[in-house]
Amino acid sequence: MPILTVLIVLPALGAALVAIVPRRLARPTALAASLATLGVAVAVWARFDPASAEPFPLHEGPWPWIPDLGVAWALGLDGVGLVFVLLTAVVVPAALAARSAPGRAPAALLLLSESAVLGCFTALDLFLFYAFFEAMLLPVLVVLAGFGGAGRIRAAVRLLLYTLAGSLPLLAAAVATWVHHRAAAGAPSALLADLLSTPVPAAWAPWLFAAFALAFAVKSAVVPLHGWLPDAYAEAPVGAVVVLSALLAKAGIYGFLRWALPLFPEAAVRAGPVLLALGSLGVLYGGLLAWVQRDLRRVVAWASVSHLGLCVVGLGAGTREALAGSAWQAAVHGLYTGALFLLVGVLEARTGRRGVDDFGGLAATAPRFAFLLGLAVLAAIAVPGLAGFPGEFLLVAGTWRVAPAAAVAAVLGAVLGAAYLLRVVERVCFGRPGADAPADLAPGEALPVAVLGLLLVGLGVFAGPFLDRVTPATDRVAAALEAARAGEGP
Amino acid sequence: MDWTTLPPVAIPDLGPDLLRASPVLAVFVAALVVLLAGAAGRGRGARVATVLTAVGLALAGILAVPLLLSHGGPAFGGAARLDRYSGLVVLILVACTAGAAALSPSLLRAVDARIPEHDALLLLSLLGMGLLVVADDLLLAFVGLEIMTVAAWVLTALNRSEATGVEAAVRYFVLGAFSSAFLLYGVAFVYGAAGGTGYAEAAVAAASGGRIFGVGLAMVLVGFAFKVGAVPFHPWVPDVYQGAPAPASALFATGVKVAAFAALLRFTAAVLPAAGPRWGVALAVLAAASMLVGAAAAFVQRDLKRFLGWSAVSHTGFALVPLAGGGAGMHGTLVYLAAYAAASLGAFAVAASMAHDGREDPDMERLRGLGRRHPWLAAGFATCLLSLAGLPLTAGFPAKVYVLLAAWEGAGGWLAAVVVVAALAGAAYAVRPVALLFAEPGEGVPVEIGRAARGVLVVAVIVVLALGVMPGPFVDLCRLAVAELGG
User: Fold this and answer.
1) What's the maximum distance between 2 C-alpha atoms anywhere in chain B?
2) Residues A137-168: tens digit of each pLDDT
3) Residue A153 to residue B439, Cβ atoms within 8 A
4) Element of type H or E holding A338
5) pLDDT tens digits for A246-255?
6) How far apart are the C-alpha atoms of A379 and A356, rounded to whole Å?
7) For residues B395 and B434, what is the distance between their CA atoms, to the nearest angstrom?
8) How many angstroms separate the CA atoms of A133 and B330, rounded?
């Protein structure tokens, strides 16, 4: 059975079902579809053979899609893809289960987006990847534009324009890569393996890498291309924010690891300092802005900018540890950011407020809420024993070897992160009760966040099995970069 | 002179050719019948005409299928080519005309411009398009172009109570006549240089060069550029799209454009390879200018029809790119046009629904909040607009991919860069109406979308999504059809 194809098709089928079942069954159907997808994802994990010597231990196809162009339905998973697939499969049910979760149309759209996200993390054909990469945003965009807050249209237009500004150059670069391959190999193909076999000329590579990097940097909100992020995160419904922040933003980091770095290693090595600089800038700038925000959602939004900047630092460093840390950090960031946005969403649903100073003393009145918030924040600031720690440790250690300044920036960012996130816990959970005293989480609300929290603890303690699967994949990328560095000479 | 000694003229047996030309002939017969039926009775005439039009279009579509499956070749002594390409394009044209015909009755009733000859004019216009597409000779192409243009001109002027409509018709007539003169003058030069007006003869003359031929070719290309609405020969486009009744504009945006492009494609495929690369560069410059000017002007439009007019100028530029590149990528033009026509038809279905109180009022502000009242219709309209913008899973995406490919392989990096910039601008201006759809409801008279328009919109969305998700089969068809043109 083509399990990866099933994985991609299942949420889309669920979306179709949600659209036609009676209204009161829509939410349970959506949840069931996303849980079934989670089940398939677990089966994928079980089938994945970490000892396999193949670059993609699980793969399907290629089956022709547009034969004229040699574009094919080709899917495959390595360790990096695997963790992102699992992240997706876990986060979407949590987003759909949230009590403040929206009605029929948004649920169907989020499932559609899940399909595209899963496709994006498994596609091995450049055009297929591009199609999924673009398609995953559209449903979220519709949710944002149709069901968001007061500034939703502005936020949606901005998000769309930023994304297109990145992705059209990516399309042009993909076409150029394809044209070069056809000229060099004599047959059209957009398969990753084929494209890798015909490296593009050194004169083109920097431009093509720049175009790829632009698209991925926009998606991951690398400063200064982050302009879409604060408004989108502030205005979108909670479910859409969770999908946007936990999953879509990861596609950029993933895109670097899967496509941009392996296809253009020489250019990537030369662009390393730029990525390091932009990443460090993002870490500090995002951290400082998170510090001054008064709106809980915006605190988490800017924290995202800061933490994704950390991933970019790792990509720029390009060492084995840094790349593994980058992938790890990106995946775990999805878990704790998802949890944080879900918790903020509960406060909003209860009180209609989301200011940092609107609440207080929740540790006494809402202990379940306070506990889960504390747990997510501790994971976010990379306390040892929780999931954030291994990633940040690898990142800083791997970056220190090649770029001590960026490593210092990363550590400073972590300190900043501790400051503004712990302040949120202090203001919200302790001190005098605020204007509103929201009731504690109901079991149904607590469960999705608790599952994410459990994973944050579990991944912190048992990081081994996951890292064992991630590192072979990131090591291959690091090896390609190493070879490019060696070829370039001193 | 002794007339009796002249050699006997061999009358060729036209039977097989006529049989193969049956789709075009069916349109011709249907047009005449509809004209008569419309004249016969006032009240009932219109309804009978509608039914007959539908029958004629269906017949033409069915008869085009054997052509699509055949290999075909020259017909009527080399004046025409009835091949796979003709079959494919005629099918697309029939679909476009059917869409425009479906939109017509309700709108024309709303603005009180319903006349029974209307359907006959649509069919006559289609007849002209058909001739234009099958023509393998500049003179037949000219005849087809004129039939199409004259019918389209009357359609533009149909809404006589509207000042913009009359102005558009006059403008279209003057500029149309001007461009026809260019074309015809060019044909005369080509005839002078090549000794004939067939595309094949022109190709032979092109290979040997010569200034006279060059002048003729340039004038013919200018004539075509007028008809497809490429910058700097575009000024009539936004005015006509705005001034003509929406169904006529829909026909301009889809059928007329596809036919003019299809003829240009056949002509360039036959002649330009022999004429040398600089003509490709000239087309590339036209393409780049059209893409950018059209996109820039579309930004500031408030009138939906005028907006679609400027966007049509921009899309003309995109569709020209594969022609400029020539060679293997030329079927990209056909793919692009099909995608563009389907999405445009959907957009014009909404534009045609914006009449109230006896006049058209396509102010885009009136779309505000449509998404609240009719989420599915708004989503369908948005799908069409986003397909024009080239987003994945819609037909616009593979179309843009083919254009980019052709740009890289033809003119090279600079044209690809222009394509990217223009595509980005195209997405940006398409976003505004989409954003309006999902904004809070506003003041103006709300738009109600009638049954016919809904039908057209639904079909358009289905085609757009089908081409977007599974472009393979259609692209293969286009490639096969265009591959036969060169030789």
Assistant:
1) 85
2) 888 888 888 788 888 888 888 888 888 888 88
3) yes
4) helix A320-351
5) 898 899 999 9
6) 20
7) 17
8) 28
